[in-house]
Write the structure tokens for this entry.
Amino acid sequence: MTTGTAAGPGPAAQARRAERLAIAASLLESPPPLEELGPGRVVVRAGSVVHPSRSRPVVRWELTVDAGSGPAPLAVIGKGYRKGGGEEAGRLLRQLRRAGFDHPRLQVPAPFGFDPVRRVLAQEEAPPTTLRSLLDGDPGRAAPVVAQVGRWLARLHGVTGVDVPVLVEDFERGKLTEYASALAEVLPHAEDRLRSLTERTLDGLARDTGPRVVTHGDFQPGNIHLGGNRVVVIDFDRAAYAPAARDLGHFIGQTLTMGASRHGSLDAATPWVGAFLRGYATAGGDRAAVAAASTYVARTFAEVLFYRLVVRPMRDWSFVPAWLDAWEAALDGVVRSSRP
């Protein structure tokens, strides 16, 4: 089995990282836009870079805000949209909160304002704990929380009257073709199998003729934050009208692969699958979407393999046979896995 290299970052990579850090740090040179908070005295106490990026840098401000009843601490996240879209992202958050996602238990962050010069959207900081972090221990213990996450998604899929684009018709075909071509280059011994898996996945996606709903587009444990009884979902940059099963399959596929990264087996997070789908269905989620989700699980396995073998190659590729088997099993309608 081919393996990635163990070489550290060279001068070019270090220069790119320095550039990304500088771009993010530049957002901290002025205070966050807070026009939606209303009048009040704001003092910036500290600022830090959360995520350096050329196109989507993320920073954090620590503030005190005095609206007349005394100073109170406030943490604000600033997300840069250097290629555009920040104003639309803020509008979507406002629309979702008006549609019910300011609920005490099911939420999206409150937007505070958008600076068109820096192209930075300021928003409420989500709770620090992510659903992904619960995979580090015994995933089975988190099943009740995962069921609540399923209920959050069912509510999103029932939302109407919000501004999101329609998913481009050939989006999935283009992405899967890209993944398959790149994977065939690094896994030449599996080229025929990859071609078959890709064709079967595309056929399955084409058969999903269910209604288009508001989808998150990157619904996975890293974008789901937990605080007390609250589920707060962030990062709606890929939101679109698309098949509901797309969010379901993406969550399941990402959950299984994240669990495997921590515990060495795609079986590790399987207790989450049933809990998630039960929560979704009992909250009124589309049952046809549940039935179609396995094809999107297969699509997500292809995407994760692409990123782990091509974009950011891992050193140890011994997991690949088990993941190819799981991709095939998902196409057979079985969300299961085999141990490497």
Observations:
- Residues 41 and 312 are 45 Å apart (CA to CA).
- The chain has nine helices and eleven strands.
